[in-house]
Amino acid sequence: MGIAALIAWVLTAVGGAVLLGRWVAHGGLRSTGAGHFPPGLVLGHFALAAAGLVVWIVHLLLGSTLLAWISLALLVVVALLGFGMFRLWVPGYRARTATTAGSSAAGSSGAGSPGAGSSGAGSSGAGGEPGAASGVSTAPARETAEAHLPPAVVAAHGVLGVATVVLVLLATLGVAAG
Hints:
Blueprint: H1 2-25, H2 39-62, H3 65-106, H4 113-122, H5 129-133, H6 135-142, H7 151-177
Helix pairs in contact: 1-2, 1-7, 2-3, 3-7
C-alpha cells in the first residue's frame, strides 16, 4: 500500500509541476488582487507537498511510523490548500467558458455581460464585477495566470490528490496497526 501511495503521490506531483510551471510562466508570481491565486498559497501548497513526499519516501525506507503520520498530516494540509485553490479557480473557469460560449452572441455590444452582471449584481463582490461589466477591463481581468491552467490537468491533479490522501491514510493505518 505504501508503494501505491508513493506512485499516486509522484503522479500527482507531476500534474502539480505542470500546473505550477504554467502558472509561473503566465505571471502567477507577479499577480495580485481579485481573481488571482495568492503566490503564498500556491508556493505553500507546492512546498508542503514536496516536503510530505520526501518524508513519505524516508518513511518507506526506514519504516518509521512517526514519519508516516507526519507525512499524512502534511498531506492533509496540502489537500486543504489545494481545495482552496480549486475553489478560487472554478469561478474564473466558469466565467471563461460562459464568455467563450456567449462571445459569438455577444458581439461588440457586451451582451456577454448580462450573465456576468446578473451574478455580479446578486453577489457582494462588487469590486471585480463592475470592471467585468465594462468592455475595456473585461479581457485583462480574465487573463489571469490561472486562466492558462488546463482543466484536464486540474481535474487529474485533484483526483490523483484525493487518491493519494486515501492511499497514504490506509498505508499509515496499516503501519500503525502492525
